[in-house]
Amino acid sequence: MVRIVIILLTIVLPIVASGQGCSDAGFCTMGAMKPDQPFNKKVEFKLRSMELSFYRGTTTTSPIIYVATADLNFSITPNTFFQVKLPYQAVEGNFGNTSGMSDISLSVTQTLKSTHKYDVN
Predict the structure, then answer these.
(1) What is the rounded distance in angstroms from the CA atom of residue 54 to the CA atom of residue 35?
(2) Among candidate residues 75, 70, 71, the one with its CA nearest the CA of residue 42
(3) pTM value?
(4) Mean pLDDT for each 10-residue chunk of the chain (121 residues)?
(5) Cα dist. 39→19, 64, 97, 107 in Å?
(6) How far from 18 is each of 13, 14, 22, 29, 81, CA to CA, in Å?
(7) 3: alpha, beta or left, given left = phi > 0 and alpha = psi -120 to 50?
(8) Angstrom distance (rounded) from CA 46 to CA 29
(9) Which of 114, 30, 25 is nearest to 72 (CA)?
(10) What is the maximal distance between C-alpha atoms in the chain?
(11) Kind of pairing, strands 80-93 and 64-77?
């Protein structure tokens, strides 16, 4: 009986389940969720890495969007890391210009198990 219930749940749940995915693309690339960690695991500095990125986007109408993002990774302890993303956005167009800080993202990651082949955070 238990086996039948498990089989039915395995078949039915994926059919009725729905998910949003990542609601914020910037937040889904932080901490343990980031697909490629750009730091060297053997370096024991407080500032582990810093990335600066710049994007320019245009639309079919007049606005031009500029985004500059600073992505800073710090180590608090040998197994605890803190990441902050500081995006700055500017928009220029026919209806005016505006600029300022965007959504600041913070992330703390704790490493539970680390081997040469994988990390569990």
Answers:
(1) 20
(2) 75
(3) 0.57
(4) 80 65 60 56 67 90 91 86 91 90 88 86 81
(5) 31, 33, 37, 16
(6) 9, 8, 13, 22, 32
(7) alpha
(8) 21
(9) 30
(10) 67
(11) antiparallel
What pLDDT shows up at residue 27? 58
φ and ψ at residue 7, rounded to 5 degrees = -65, -45
Residue from 110, 121, 39, 49 nearest 77 by CA: 110
Q: 55: exposed, middle or buried (C-beta count within 10 Å: 0-12, 13-18, 19+)?
A: exposed
**Both tokens of residue 121?**
């955070």
